[in-house]
Design brief:
Order of helices and strands: HEHEHEHEHEHHEHEHEH
Number of strands: 8
Radius of gyration: 17 Å
Mean pLDDT: 96
Number of helices: 10
Structural class: alpha/beta
CATH topology: TIM Barrel
CATH architecture: Alpha-Beta Barrel
Strand content: 15-25%
Helix content: 40-55%
Strand order of the largest sheet: 7-6-5-4-3-2-1-8
């Protein structure tokens, strides 16, 4: 099935939910991304810095680039000039580096804080306690070039749909708690909840996702 047909089918299945669809294009060549672009996609998600930089240079300039993978501090500078949203900020040190590089570019960069909700230890992310430590930190209060727009999480890779739902529900509760906190600095505005991938997006939507990160359902299996 073509990328355009896959997109059409997917968009029908999510039409009743107000969410942003990010096409996860990692490992896919530019000509395949262009098929999605021609079918109306403008938001693309990549998890490797070099690949994202290369594709940004080759793709039309109205594309919005989402960094969805684990981001190393020494690579931040390469994406700051153009990145639309960094989904996976998983430490105060990384946030500090984003602020530093964004100041050099004189550009405000939107970020999501990644929360560890899965049972797998291999997944990155903050605990709820670490999240609020960052949100209340002096470093964030003084930051002028980063905006915290919400939270991101990845559920356990499992066939157990109830477990996935529990994990998404848990993240939604943390999100709701942060959203109503009157003591957070002005550069924190909890609007976006980035949960849901090809295998679990329907559950994510039911649990309040505002951003889906979908790869295989659009582009087919990865190379």
């Amino acid at each position: 099935m073509s990328v355009a047909k896959n997109l059409e089918k997917l968009q029908r299945s999510i039409a009743s939910y107000p969410c942003l669809l990010v096409a996860v294009s990692k490992t896919k060549p530019v000509e395949v991304l262009m098929e999605a672009y021609e079918a109306g996609v403008r938001d693309f998600g990549e998890n490797k810095v070099q690949e994202m930089v290369d594709k940004h240079e080759q793709m039309p300039k109205d594309c919005k680039w989402h960094m969805i993978g684990h981001l190393q501090r020494n690579k931040v500078k390469y994406i700051i000039p153009f990145v639309h949203l960094i989904h996976a900020v998983d430490s105060a040190r990384l946030l500090k580096e984003i602020e530093k590089q964004a100041e050099k570019e004189d550009r405000i960069v939107d970020c999501l804080l990644q929360i560890h909700i899965a049972e797998e230890q291999s997944k990155f992310g903050l605990s709820e306690e670490e999240l609020f430590e960052i949100l209340y930190s002096e470093m964030l209060a003084k930051a002028k070039y980063v905006q915290i727009k919400g939270l991101m999480g990845m559920a356990t890779f499992t066939e157990d749909k109830q477990q996935v739902r529990r994990e998404f529900k848990h993240l939604r509760q943390i999100f709701d708690k942060a959203k109503v906190d009157a003591h957070l600095p002005k550069n924190v505005n909890m609007q976006k909840l980035s949960i849901g991938m090809s295998g679990d997006y329907q559950i994510a939507l039911e649990e309040g996702s505002t951003i889906l990160r979908i790869g295989t359902t659009i582009f087919g299996s990865r190379n």
